[in-house]
């Protein structure tokens, strides 16, 4: 009980110092709990949606995916004949069966040809209005579609695009473009995460999405009273002779949930990973806080020992303070995490993914995880200072000698830090020397961990030399004040090292990712310059295929020298070594593609691969299967006939663009695939006539005005798009790393604040002999700047080493250009100085307000 009272008294006696440490715990716990609540809420939203929209049993084509979405490269959904509906209706236990048609491989535009598709990446769904949808959608205005000139739209899409009844919209599919006017508005009975839904009548949907009547993509089956879904599925399978895919409501919902699960898990574990980094940085803050508090209470600890307190009691007293800190910070963190989750939901809503707070899901495990994690991390971080407090002998403490210096510990630290750093450096060397990326990535991971731990351990030993150099370059210009700031930073190298290490971790990751991102952009740009000969690339950034109408519009554009179509088909290969490779891609393009992409060959001429019944393979594939020029490969095209193609060229495997592709001509593909099985174009390439590039560029954009889903880019645009894409990813990662950097800044603030308290008498004496308040504040700010720059130097140097090693592994995949983003690195270094200035504002202000006489009188 005495230990608890002592701990409570000390905790509240230093509540200001504890508050900063509690904020670090709070932020880290909030990020963890916010992530869990946010992802659980998204899962709940999708669970409700999929459960509500799934019929008791769904029948679809064998070629359909488990989620029922379009899987056909022709751009049309896989369908079944209308006769299947009558077969299903005849199955025992069927109450009703209704055929429907829907597709997600569509684009919908308004009268101005602006896309109505969600910007969040959610699907655009066009389908026939049916009884199953009527269960989950309520018509709030107008009426359901009853003819080819009518379409019904979901309420969310109407609001987002300011649409109204009677407005004209166009549905662009592989079949063509169909226009209709809005006849009704339907609202979701459950939360819509952001999909855009458009309903046509059944006949119009068949003609618009498939191009033929009397076919369905799905049959929605309702069970009779007392019949289970499992029994109904069994009966429907028997009635249809197992010719179709049959799924229960649960199977359909599970398949849909699994479809979004991958994205959800990536987001969840990425965010938890950054929360872990914040926790790691917070550990340094807590260690520093308790180390300094123990040092300031040396005489008090001595008195406790002198009157009978044991080492264990002193140790326990500090750990109880840490426990109180952990509980306090974690409880607030759990609450803040719920707020963060709601904020993320609002942010996603502004991006088009609607999430309702009515679906907010807080599992009982979330606060438990937050509390346990926050308390354990805090107590573990306080263990070393607590152990050090227990070692203080009564007589040494009463003499104000402080904690005993442990020279042996310093030697151990030096040896261990050197070994870890050397081990990390050697692992990075092995990674850079690896012949295979997979093997090298393992060494890279080990090197990153060992070198990071090594720098943390050896940081206090490096502090002396680095701070002196920084002092000579930066602080000496400020005269005596600068020299005092330098000495203050050097006074306790362990504290300076730990404070700098907190900032080092975040900046090391920033530097590493900056190097990797810049190198990827530079390498891809280099590859584009060397290999891409076409002037323009036309593609859908969302991954949809290029419709025949759009290809026709491109080909009719004036000023073009040639247009190249680019398709990917699936086939089974039987190679000369007798092996059969299932579901392997083959790339079919026009012969002009040999000029559009200057792919290096190791044997033969790539242009010959586009001759009738010819193909090319890449170097690795040829070596693996004993293929040489003139070899015959049996290619069984999916949905078509089997061809015997002659290998006319072997391309280099040392490329980035189209790596691993096997080429043939579109004419050869058309010879063995029926017209209705021909895949749509993945991309379309176009080259202008000499001197007409600018005019052709404008003409292409104009020609594709009616098809907003496609983007026309010249090589400059393509490079910028690549740079922007990687830049957006890096900015998102930097944003998440900002949490760790904020915690590191709190660490600098806390260190300085406690350091000011520790030096109260000294500050009073300096003021008494003439040091002004302004000079005192400047001294503290300069001390903070040099600590921040120390951490920045270590972090940036370490991160650039990691990034350069990672680029060596990328070089094995063809990304061979190493580029150090010196502007970014320099900006981060300079920014670190401002971080130091910002962190010192409050401690410097408080130091300047000290009463001189009271400070001198402090014991």
From TrEMBL:
Polar residues bias spans: 60-74
Where primarily located?
membrane
Q: Which UniProt keywords apply?
A: Cell membrane, Membrane, Transmembrane, Transmembrane helix
Annotated membrane topology is: Multi-pass membrane protein
Any transmembrane segments, and where? 269-295, 318-342, 362-386, 407-430, 442-475, 496-517, 732-757, 782-802, 822-845
Subcellular localization: Cell membrane
Residues of the MacB-like periplasmic core domain: 19-236, 499-697
Q: Which GO terms describe its molecular function?
A: transmembrane transporter activity
Which residues does the annotated region (Disordered) include? 60-80
Q: Which family does it belong to?
A: Belongs to the ABC-4 integral membrane protein family.
Could you identify this protein by its name?
Answer: ABC transporter integral membrane protein
């Amino acid at each position: 009980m005495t230990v608890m009272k002592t701990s409570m008294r000390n905790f509240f006696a230093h509540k200001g110092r504890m508050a900063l440490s509690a904020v670090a715990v709070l932020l880290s716990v909030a990020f963890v709990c916010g992530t869990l609540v946010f992802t659980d809420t998204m899962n709940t939203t999708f669970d409700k949606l999929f459960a509500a929209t799934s019929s008791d049993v769904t029948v679809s084509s064998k070629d359909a995916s488990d989620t029922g979405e379009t899987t056909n490269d022709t751009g049309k959904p896989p369908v079944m004949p209308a006769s299947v509906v009558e077969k299903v209706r005849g199955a025992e236990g069927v109450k009703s069966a209704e055929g429907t048609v829907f597709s997600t491989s569509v684009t919908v535009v308004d009268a101005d040809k602006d896309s109505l598709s969600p910007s969040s990446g959610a699907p655009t769904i066009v389908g026939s209005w049916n009884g199953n949808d009527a269960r989950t959608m309520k018509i709030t205005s107008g009426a359901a579609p009853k003819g080819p000139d009518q379409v019904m739209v979901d309420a969310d899409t109407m609001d987002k695009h300011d649409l109204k009844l009677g407005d004209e919209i166009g549905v662009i599919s592989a079949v063509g473009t169909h226009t209709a006017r809005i006849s009704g508005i339907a609202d979701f009975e459950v939360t819509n995460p952001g999909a855009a839904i458009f309903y046509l009548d059944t006949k119009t949907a068949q003609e618009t999405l498939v191009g033929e009547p009397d076919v369905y993509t799905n049959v929605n089956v309702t069970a009779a009273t007392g019949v289970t879904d499992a029994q109904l599925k069994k009966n429907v399978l028997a009635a249809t002779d197992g010719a179709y895919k049959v799924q229960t409501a649960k199977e359909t919902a599970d398949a849909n949930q699994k479809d979004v699960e991958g994205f959800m898990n990536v987001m969840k574990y990425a965010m938890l990973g950054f929360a872990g980094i914040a926790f790691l940085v917070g550990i340094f803050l807590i260690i520093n806080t308790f180390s300094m508090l123990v040092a300031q209470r040396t005489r008090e600890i001595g008195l406790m020992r002198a009157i009978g307190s044991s080492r264990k009691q002193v140790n326990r007293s500090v750990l109880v303070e840490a426990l109180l800190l952990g509980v306090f910070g974690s409880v607030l963190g759990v609450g803040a995490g719920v707020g963060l989750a709601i904020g993320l939901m609002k942010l996603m809503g502004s991006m088009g993914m609607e999430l309702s707070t009515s679906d907010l899901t807080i599992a009982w495990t979330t606060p438990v995880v937050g509390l346990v994690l926050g308390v354990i991390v805090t107590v573990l971080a306080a263990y070393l200072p607590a152990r050090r407090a227990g070692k203080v002998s009564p007589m040494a403490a009463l003499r104000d000698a402080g904690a005993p210096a442990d020279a042996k510990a310093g030697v151990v630290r030096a040896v261990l830090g050197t070994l870890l750093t050397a081990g990390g450096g050697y692992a990075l060397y092995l990674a850079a020397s690896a012949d295979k990326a997979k093997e090298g990535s393992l060494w890279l991971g080990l090197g990153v961990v060992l070198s990071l731990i090594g720098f943390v351990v050896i940081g206090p030993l490096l502090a002396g030399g680095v701070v002196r150099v920084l002092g000579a370059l930066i602080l000496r210009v400020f005269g005596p004040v600068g020299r005092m700031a330098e000495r203050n930073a050097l006074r306790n190298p362990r504290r300076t090292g730990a404070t700098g290490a907190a900032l080092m971790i975040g900046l090391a990751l920033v530097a590493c990712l900056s190097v990797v991102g810049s190198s990827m952009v530079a390498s891809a740009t280099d590859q584009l310059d060397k290999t891409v000969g076409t002037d323009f690339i036309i593609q859908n950034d969302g991954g949809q295929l290029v419709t025949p109408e759009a290809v026709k519009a491109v080909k009719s554009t004036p000023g073009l020298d040639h247009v190249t179509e680019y398709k990917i088909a699936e086939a089974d290969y039987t190679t000369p070594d007798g092996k059969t490779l299932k579901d392997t891609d083959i790339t079919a393009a026009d012969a002009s593609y040999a000029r559009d992409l200057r792919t290096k060959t190791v044997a033969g001429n790539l242009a010959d691969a586009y001759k009738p019944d010819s193909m090319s393979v890449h170097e690795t594939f040829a070596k693996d299967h004993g293929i040489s020029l003139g070899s015959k490969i049996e290619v069984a095209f999916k949905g078509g006939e089997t061809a015997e193609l002659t290998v006319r060229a072997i391309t280099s495997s040392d490329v980035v663009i189209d790596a691993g592709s096997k080429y043939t001509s579109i004419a050869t593909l058309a010879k063995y695939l029926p017209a209705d099985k021909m895949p749509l174009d993945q991309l379309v390439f176009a080259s202008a006539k000499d001197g007409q590039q600018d005019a052709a560029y404008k003409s292409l954009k104009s020609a594709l005005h009616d098809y907003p889903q496609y983007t026309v880019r010249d090589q400059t645009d393509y490079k910028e798009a690549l740079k922007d894409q990687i830049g957006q990813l890096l900015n998102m990662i930097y944003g998440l790393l900002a949490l760790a950097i904020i915690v590191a800044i709190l660490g600098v603030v806390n260190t300085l604040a406690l350091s000011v308290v520790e030096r109260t008498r000294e500050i009073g004496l300096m003021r008494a002999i003439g040091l002004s308040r302004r000079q005192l504040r400047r001294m503290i700010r300069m001390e903070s700047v040099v600590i921040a720059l120390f951490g920045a130097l270590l972090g940036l140097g370490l991160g650039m080493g990691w990034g350069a090693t990672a680029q060596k592994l990328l070089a094995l995949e063809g990304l061979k250009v190493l580029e150090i983003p010196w502007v970014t690195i320099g900006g981060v270094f300079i920014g670190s100085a401002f971080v130091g200035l910002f962190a010192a504002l409050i401690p410097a202000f408080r130091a300047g307000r000290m009463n001189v006489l009271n400070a001198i009188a402090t014991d």
